[in-house]
Amino acid sequence: RSLLGRKAALSTLSILVALLIVGQAVTVYFVYQQSGQINKLTKTSQTLQLQALQKKMPSSSKPASKMRMAMVNMPRAMKDLPLSPSADRMPLDIMGPVSNKTEDQVKHLLLQADPQKMFPELKDNLMDNLKRLKKSMTAMDWKAFESWMHKWLLFELAKNPQKNEKKVIPAERGIA
């Protein structure tokens, strides 16, 4: 009698374990299907946000082939970078006025690539702004930025050749 009871209990326990395993498998299957749908909805909403931003941008009066790229001074560009709210946290009508300024066009392109991108608020002079940027950037990002600044400086020097020939003195380096 006890052997029959143990066999019944064992078979009942086996059936319950099998049902739990099947239940877990079904749950995993449905969660996997839902995650795919959530990813599709996320991509669709980002696309719709970008389309709304593009519609909100004023159209240029000149054809694209006749437009010239504006030359921006580094201190001016660094000074005018306001804090840009994340596209998914703020409604589109609160994000501020949209214009054809170079800064706005660049921000729009950067936000298209990554809607989560934030822009720091830089209101001090150039040196203080650069120090604040250096503290907020990773070492690798800062090195890339320094490289870009060097290339920008070379471009500016090539654009405006100096009439007064002066000997170039390299920056002193500390002894390591």
UniProtKB/TrEMBL annotation:
Where does the record place the MHC class II-associated invariant chain/CLIP MHC II-interacting domain?
A: 6-84
Q: Which GO terms describe its cellular component?
A: cell surface; cytoplasm; extracellular region; membrane
Tell me the keywords, alphabetical order: Glycoprotein, Secreted
Q: List, in alphabetical order, the Gene Ontology terms for molecular function in this entry.
A: cytokine receptor activity; macrophage migration inhibitory factor binding; MHC class II protein binding
Where does it localize?
Secreted
Gene Ontology biological process terms from the UniProt entry:
antigen processing and presentation; intracellular protein transport; negative regulation of DNA damage response, signal transduction by p53 class mediator; negative regulation of intrinsic apoptotic signaling pathway in response to DNA damage by p53 class mediator; positive regulation of cytokine-mediated signaling pathway; positive regulation of ERK1 and ERK2 cascade; positive regulation of macrophage cytokine production; positive regulation of type 2 immune response
Q: Which residues form a coiled coil?
A: none
According to the entry, every stretch annotated as the MHC class II-associated invariant chain trimerisation domain falls at 100-167
Protein's name according to its UniProt entry: HG2A protein
